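Is this the right way to post structure tokens for a design question? Let me know if I should format differently. Anyway, here goes:
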């Protein structure tokens, strides 16, 4: 069975990705097994730039095919912010709670009742020789709450209600989120690719 490195140290993200790819026919490992590997800078202008750069970096560093993603929250009233800067929105060492608090504060300043937003995710797979094997994108439309709700998920999940639901990503069961989220939609395309090329 071929091996695929899930190029993240975010335990919530590892669980989410592994659930969706568990029957793709690949043996999954994560960066927690490669503590010595450094973290590359994320300075791309797009989600795809960052996902591809991370996949290539970690594949070269470990010798495994690597899967990396870059994702972000785009809020209409904030002109699409935080976007590609979602993970660094409140500074390099900020917590998820810090980022959520800043987002709500910035949104409150707009006096805009338009809470429309969308999550975007791009997943890239690269081989150890630097070849990009697959790039997939997924989006999920929704709205931003006025306060964090729910204990599940990670990142901005407690602020985001996907269209068609009354609960935030942090309130929805994982099995529901893993069917409708931006990351799930990108990974479902990735899953199809992995199954087709595992031999």
């Amino acid at each position: 069975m071929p091996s695929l490195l899930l190029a993240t140290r975010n335990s919530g993200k590892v669980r989410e990705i592994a659930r969706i790819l568990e029957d793709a026919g690949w043996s999954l490992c994560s960066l927690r097994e490669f503590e010595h590997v450094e973290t590359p800078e994320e300075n791309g202008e797009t989600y795809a730039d960052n996902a591809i750069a991370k996949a290539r970096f970690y594949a070269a560093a470990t010798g495994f095919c690597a899967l990396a993603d870059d994702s972000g929250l785009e809020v209409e009233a904030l002109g699409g912010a935080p976007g590609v800067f979602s993970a660094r929105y409140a500074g390099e060492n900020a917590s998820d709670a810090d980022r959520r608090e800043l987002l709500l504060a910035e949104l409150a300043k707009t006096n805009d009742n338009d809470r429309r937003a969308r999550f975007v995710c791009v997943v890239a797979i690269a081989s150890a020789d630097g070849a990009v094997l697959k790039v997939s994108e997924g989006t999920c439309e929704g709205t931003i709450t006025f306060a964090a709700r729910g204990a599940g998920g990670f990142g901005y999940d407690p602020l985001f209600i996907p269209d068609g639901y009354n609960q935030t990503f942090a309130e929805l069961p994982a099995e529901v989120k893993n069917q409708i989220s931006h990351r799930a939609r990108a990974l479902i395309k990735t899953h199809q690719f992995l199954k087709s090329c595992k031999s």
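Format looks fine. Someone answered above. Worth noting: The two ends are 8 Å apart (CA to CA). The mean pLDDT is 93.
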